[in-house]
TrEMBL record:
It comes from Salvia splendens. The lineage of its organism: Eukaryota, Viridiplantae, Streptophyta, Embryophyta, Tracheophyta. One of its GO terms (cellular component) is plasma membrane. This is non-specific serine/threonine protein kinase. Residues 340-365 are annotated as: Disordered. CDD domains: STKc_IRAK. It catalyses: L-seryl-[protein] + ATP = O-phospho-L-seryl-[protein] + ADP + H(+); L-threonyl-[protein] + ATP = O-phospho-L-threonyl-[protein] + ADP + H(+).
Length: 399
């Protein structure tokens, strides 16, 4: 048997949950095996660190259960300590991420050059006979999803929420507008916003979706988790751009404002946060009364002007028409109160961007069409074990 099979669940078992890491009682793929792993000693290649498998196994106590931080669509994440004392998070990508080693290395190199106080840095990587691992700086205080939803927002007062929103907006603005080549995140969601001990936001996993070529079960799992964040043009044609990131960012702002989850998968699509919030936001932005939308957990303790700004940013970010969504730098300025909201709206009134255009184009993609696509898409994901990924992120263009 291929030793790497011991780390990865058999095809099809991932969503069923039966597979647990470490239950084989072994360290991991080929660790202490035939010596074929770990032949490469860690080295600094083009400014990024290339680790041997042994080094990462040592850092994580043999990828032990105790060190496990969590599990996402791409695989397991373990906490580790490097010999120099640096604390890291080691993400083991599931096998079947079909990208070749050279391509993988090139992408990793681009990502590892990106450093910003609101972006989680990639420290290095490891490729060992088919296994790919990514090593990130460790961020200590869980995720925005955890604080907002699992803990019901406790501890997230208004000023903390605003600080988190500004931080994640700055991180994304940097990826979109200051990096060369520019980077589209592709998987923006509250689970990918890590929180540090000062309750500052750190955007994680940028570029990762591009790095891994999804296999069937993987894409199902990932897309399920990311469902409520999908921009309409991405849902309908797989088209990705910075503006699809902006849409997903807008959904996170809605979560911060309302305290609600983006979608309840046990319910019908009509209950998506975006659909629920859109008309309420339009009304609230007109009459200045946010009672219906604001998180009851805040118990009325918020700054009205700041809340209006965040609500306006959310409303502008979730416009159907990608073109009419603001750029991340405009959102940063609006959230910080450094610009008039007219700048954000570019002449479009909140809630009025979805005029139906019978001649086609993105404006024609209205709420009904979006919902219909989402329903189809949801059904496809739910039904299909043989669902393949090409339409979603496999080969979509960045334009
Ligand atoms: N750099 C990090 N520092 C600390 N914890 C991390 C780090 N990266 C990931 N984690 C933890 O590991 C868990 C799993 O992360 P992972 O990125 O694999 O899954 P996800 O974010 O839920 O989904 P996706 O695979 O789409 O990113 C996270 O919820 C987080 O708690
Ligand atoms: Mg993640």
């Amino acid at each position: 048997m291929d030793p790497k099979m011991k780390l990865h669940p058999p095809a099809g078992s991932f969503m069923g949950g039966g597979w647990a890491p470490g239950t084989s009682g072994e360290f991991g793929p080929g660790y202490n095996n035939s010596g074929q792993h770990g032949a490469i000693q860690s080295q600094n290649v083009g400014g990024m660190y290339q680790f041997s498998y042994e080094e990462l196994a040592n850092a994580t106590n043999g990828f032990s259960q105790v060190n496990m931080l969590g599990q996402g669509g791409y695989g397991l994440v373990h906490k580790g300590v490097l010999p120099d004392g640096r604390v890291v998070a080691v993400k083991s990508l599931k096998s079947g991420s079909g990208q070749g080693e050279r391509e993988f290395q090139a992408e990793v190199e681009i990502i590892s050059r990106v450093h910003h106080r609101h972006l989680v840095s990639l420290v290095g990587y490891c490729i060992a006979t088919g296994n790919k691992l990514l090593v990130y700086e460790f961020v200590a205080n869980k995720t925005l999803e955890f604080h907002l939803h699992d803990k019901g927002g406790a501890g997230l007062d208004w000023s903390t929420r605003l600080r988190i929103a500004v931080g994640m907006a700055k991180g994304l603005a940097y990826l979109h507008e200051d990096c060369s080549p520019r980077i589209i995140h592709r998987d923006i969601k509250a689970a990918n916003i890590l929180i540090d001990n000062n309750f500052e936001a750190m955007v994680a996993d940028f570029g990762l979706a591009k790095l891994t070529t999804d296999n069937n079960t993987h894409v199902s799992t990932r897309v399920m988790g990311t469902f409520g964040y999908l921009a309409p043009e991405y849902a309908s044609s797989g088209k990705l751009s910075e503006k699809s990131d902006v849409f997903s960012f807008g959904v996170m702002l809605l979560e911060i404002v309302t305290g609600r989850r983006p979608i309840d998968l046990t319910n019908t699509m009509e209950d998506s946060l975006v659909d629920w919030a859109r008309p309420l936001l339009t009304k609230a932005l007109e009459d200045g009364n946010f009672e219906e939308v604001v998180d009851p957990g805040l118990e009325g303790r918020f700054d009205h002007d700041e809340l209006s700004r965040m609500a306006a940013c959310a409303a502008a970010s979730i416009r159907h028409s990608a073109r009419k969504r603001p750029k991340m730098s405009q959102i940063v300025r609006a959230l910080e109160g450094d610009s008039s909201l007219d700048d954000l709206n570019d002449g479009v009134k909140p809630g009025q961007s979805t005029t139906f255009n019978p001649n086609g184009g993105s404006d024609a993609y209205d709420t009904r069409a979006y919902n219909a696509d989402m329903m189809k898409f949801k059904k496809m994901v739910m039904d299909s074990e043989e669902f393949t990924s090409n339409e979603y992120g496999g080969d979509s263009s960045d334009k």
